[in-house]
Amino acid sequence: MRLNQATDYAMRSVLYLSGLPYGQVVEAKLISEEERVPMRFLLKILRQLTQAGIVQSYRGINGGYSLARPPSEITMLDVVEAIEGPIAVNRCLHSPDECNKFFSAHCPVHQALYELQQGMKEHLSRYNFQMLKERVK
Amino acid sequence: MRLNQATDYAMRSVLYLSGLPYGQVVEAKLISEEERVPMRFLLKILRQLTQAGIVQSYRGINGGYSLARPPSEITMLDVVEAIEGPIAVNRCLHSPDECNKFFSAHCPVHQALYELQQGMKEHLSRYNFQMLKERVK
DNA sequence: CATAAACTATACTATATTAGTAAACATTAA
DNA sequence: TTAATGTTTACTAATATAGTATAGTTTATG
Questions:
Q1: Nearest residue, CB atoms, B84 vs list A1, A36, A107
Q2: What confidence tens digit (pLDDT) does each residue in A63-117 have?
Q3: Which nucleotide is nearest, taking the CA of residue A55 and each C1'?
Q4: Do residue A109 and residue B12 have CB atoms under 8 angstroms apart?
């Protein structure tokens, strides 16, 4: 029941970009050093964030990354799903045909887990990076 | 961000036991067949539930398992934690010394994840197996 | 128009976790 | 005493995690 390390790095990277003047481009190396994320791994993560439309990348010399939209329009859920794909608390909620008991909708355990999952998604989507950035002491 | 398969099996096994007259003992083989859980794997899971004080085991011929307390006193959180250990949404929340950025309490990302974690625990502890059993159609 | 500083793409790898299985043992009712 | 039950420990195949490596592409600038 854990978010993976890449997601942690991704959120901290987006938070870092959120703290810069909007639109400012910084190279991956700087994020890597500031946030202590292994460089190669970070590049992979930034590519996922780029493909998800959360950050914008610039190639070539003086290239780097910036946010693709204002921090207030990027939620924690956006970042989690960019890295891990859709949240699925349990196998049966992800692909009900794999449920080896009864169809998820009829199983009270799976019903309850579905409600948990919805609650988690709602919770994560309530936090945007404008809010988080204002929380930095 | 998924519960593992053993936890799914565990919850369904506890739900199954909750549907029986309180205190009734059934052998693992029956649970295995009814809930379609591989027998050997189920035995391992039942042992964890036994150690957590959720079910009671009886050895020898005519042995088996029953609930150790009424369904109303067993929550989904109890079962999840019996199988997976304490819920930790992220590495830094589990062991803050492993946090490679700043101490969790000072990082707004980790703060937000901590709130998510608390919300999840609260959510899971609101469901007990009396409730779930009454939801079975 | 060459070069070096950036990002991109694909493939590889060591380790840990997941989801079981196997073999030998302990308990207990009949 | 035996057979049906749970217990213990060890093993294993497959997958996921957390990266690393190698080769390539883009682009500002001198």
A1: A1
A2: 999 999 999 999 999 999 999 999 999 988 887 877 776 656 678 999 999 999 9
A3: C7
A4: yes
Contact A66, A23 (CB under 8 A): yes
Q: Closest nucleotide to residue A8 (Cα to C1')? A: D18
- Gap between the Cα atoms of B41 and B4, Å rounded: 13
| Residue B44 in tokens | 């391992």
With a 7 Å cutoff on the CB, does A38 touch strand D? Answer: yes
Q: Where are the domains of chain A?
A: 5-136
The conformation of residue B100, written as its DSSP 8-state character, comes to S
Rounded Cα gap, residues B27 and B35, in angstroms = 13
pTM of the model: 0.94
Architecture field, domain B5-136? Orthogonal Bundle (1.10)
Are A66 and A17 in contact by the 8 Å Cβ rule? The answer is: yes
Q: Phi and psi at residue A136, in whole multiples of 5°?
A: -60, 125
* CB B83 within 8 Å of CB B5: no
Indicate yes or no: CB of B120 within 8 angstroms of CB of A115.
no
Least confident residue range of A46-55, A115-124, A128-137? A128-137
Query: What would the pLDDT profile of B96-137 be if each residue is shown by its tens digit?
Result: 777 776 656 678 999 999 999 999 999 999 999 999 999 986
Which bases of chain C come closer than 7 Å to a protein CB? 4-11, 17-23, 26-30
- Residue A102's identity, in one-letter code, is F
The residue count of chain B comes to 137
What does the alpha-carbon distance between residue A9 and residue A15 come to, in Å, rounded to a whole number? 10
